[in-house]
UniProtKB/TrEMBL annotation:
Record-level Gene Ontology MF annotations: ATP binding; methylcrotonoyl-CoA carboxylase activity
Name of the protein in its database record: Lipoyl-binding domain-containing protein
Keyword ATP-binding: yes
PROSITE patterns: BC (PS50979), BIOTIN (PS00188), BIOTINYL_LIPOYL (PS50968)
Superkingdom: Eukaryota
Domain Lipoyl-binding: 210-286
A Pfam family this chain is assigned to: Biotin_lipoyl
Organism whose genome encodes this protein: Homalodisca liturata
Domain Biotin carboxylation: start-end pairs: 1-62
InterPro entries listed in its UniProt record: Biotin_BS (IPR001882), Biotin_carboxylase_complex (IPR050856), Biotin_carboxylation_dom (IPR011764), Biotin_COase_C (IPR005482), Biotin_lipoyl (IPR000089), Rudment_hybrid_motif (IPR011054), Single_hybrid_motif (IPR011053)
Keywords: ATP-binding, Biotin, Ligase, Nucleotide-binding
Gene3D superfamilies cross-referenced by the UniProt entry: 2.40.50.100, 3.30.700.40, ATP-grasp fold, B domain (3.30.470.20)
Gene Ontology CC, one term: mitochondrion
Length: 287
């Protein structure tokens, strides 16, 4: 046992409501807990009414312990939390550099002739979720979750609280959601909401060709660290020598990455908005 929670109120219903709120305040990462089970239990209609018995958990196993779909609101909170966290890192890096007012850090997501769109892939319990985030001129975001009926308009703020982060997010100018965010590492985000906690993983690509003795002119690699601005090909496309494949922003300039050979794209390894390192492969060719 790592913690004990005791609540008191004037009646059972209000005590269970308080219990659920306090359980949602727990932010535990690094080990499995029974928090989600307890939160579901505290809201189960029969448990709220006090109609429990020794076989209660077994009778309601699916509702109490079963795997439930991740709601759209949780995916939106996770992707916006990632976006704001990345912006915070860029701003902090600029403040400690010799160029604290660098617009490429302070104006994250700004584009002159179009709205910047970033694609984010998340994994939760072996299921993939995809979302597109559009950076609007007024500082808000339009988030499109794959499979959702419609995009949502989002305004959000991420602030530090103790060892974690607090995300306050408004969806479609109606629903205000507050959640805790813990970035365990650059590829893992924990989201703590009133409905439970979610652990999302971002895909990790290991496509570096540095030190590879088989590197040839046919490889398509990023010439320097940067951010993918545009992807001009998709899987299955036939390309010729000199066809533009990517636009990478680095060193305050746009670099057009062109095809070094004629062939068919087997796999596009990076999407718009993703960071790339030097000498990292951007596509794979079909044999």
């Amino acid at each position: 046992m790592i913690a004990k929670l005791v609540v008191w109120s004037e009646d059972r219903i209000s005590a269970l409501e308080k219990l659920h709120r306090k359980l949602s305040d727990y932010q535990v990462v690094g080990l499995d807990t029974n928090l989600k089970f307890l939160m579901r239990l505290s809201q189960h209609p029969q448990f709220v009414e006090g109609r429990v018995h020794t076989g209660f958990i077994e009778e309601h196993t699916e509702m109490l312990l079963g795997e439930q779909a991740v709601p759209q609101s949780a995916i939106v909170q996770a992707v916006v939390g990632i976006v704001l966290h990345d912006e915070s890192i860029a701003l902090n890096a600029a403040r400690t550099s010799n160029d604290p007012f660098n617009p490429f850090a302070t104006l994250t997501g700004f584009r002159v002739n179009h709205l910047y769109e970033r694609k984010i892939e998340l994994w939760h319990r072996n299921k993939e979720y995809k979302a597109d985030v559009v950076y609007n001129r007024d500082g808000t975001y339009t988030v499109r979750v794959e499979g959702a009926a419609a995009p949502v308009e989002v305004s959000a703020k991420l602030t530090r609280s103790g060892a974690g982060l607090v995300l306050v997010l408004e969806m479609d100018k109606q629903n205000v959601l507050r959640s805790g965010v813990v970035m365990q590492d650059p590829h893992t985000i924990h989201l703590f909401t009133l409905d439970g906690s979610y652990k999302f993983s971002l895909p990790v690509y290991d496509n570096s060709v540095e030190g590879n003795n088989e590197v040839s002119d046919s490889l398509v690699v990023s010439p320097m660290p940067g951010v993918v601005d545009k992807v001009m090909v998709k899987e299955g496309d036939s390309v010729r020598v000199g066809d533009p494949l990517f636009v990478v922003i680095a060193m305050k300039m746009e670099h057009v990455i062109k095809s070094p050979k004629e062939g068919i794209i087997d796999r596009v390894l990076f999407q718009s908005g993703e960071n790339v390192s030097k000498n990292v492969a951007l596509v794979q060719w079909k044999d």
